[in-house]
Please model this.
Amino acid sequence: MVGFDEGGMERVRARMLRPAEDVGKRRGRGVRGERGAQRGQATCSDPFPDASPDAFPDVSPEAFPDPFDDPDTIAELEDRILVLSTHIEVAGHRLLQLVAEFDKRRGWELGGHASCAHWLAARAGLDRGTAR
Model:
């Protein structure tokens, strides 16, 4: 293999197959990589140590409505979402057409901007990378 001298691959395999205890001792850490942890002792911290039991709402099945109770309203809601999504796509297309015309006519120069992307970043609030 390229990049390995004679016996190099065997040394890599030996390091990869070394037990976790050896790696932890060699680095001055316990088995789990925590400093000061005892060998063989699992160290797992609470991800929400300051959270009270009331911090998480009830997630019992009763907390969620059954979608089959009234399928007509769900279908209407779905239709409204799809129509709005279509409107957003059409508006995005129209926006790109307007920006292309603005760029073609070099309207961004009137404001003293270096490019249309700079103008979009400054005036329309787009990230410059997105504006490019």
